[in-house]
Amino acid sequence: MAQILLAEDDFAVRDFVYRVLNMDGHEVFVAHDGQEALHYMTSSGYEFELMLSDICMPVVDGVTLAKLVFRHSPRLPILLMTGYSDHNSEELVPSVVGVLEKPFTVNGVQDAVRAALGRIPIKPSR
Predict the structure, then answer these.
(1) What is the pTM assigned to this prediction?
(2) How many domains does the chain have?
């Protein structure tokens, strides 16, 4: 399956998403904030196929992270996560394929990741 970089500062959400992605057979690399995720992207040597990032994180937020990652890897699809309903961040960075709204279900995460890996635009889950 895919190598996925997961950036999420909330332990419970990070653990949930990590487990869901592992159940689907993905190799998941975990970053606790945007700065750590950026380090993975620029110096780890891994070829990620997707980045899944929370929007609201300390140090480097998800939108800023998406912009920086786009400069480094413009073809990497980025899926953002948020608990806030007013977002239009996918319009700011061309490689953002969608926003997964919290709270989400196992199936919601699986469907969004499958769509993102297939570069299919993701519809909000309202």
Answers:
(1) 0.89
(2) 1
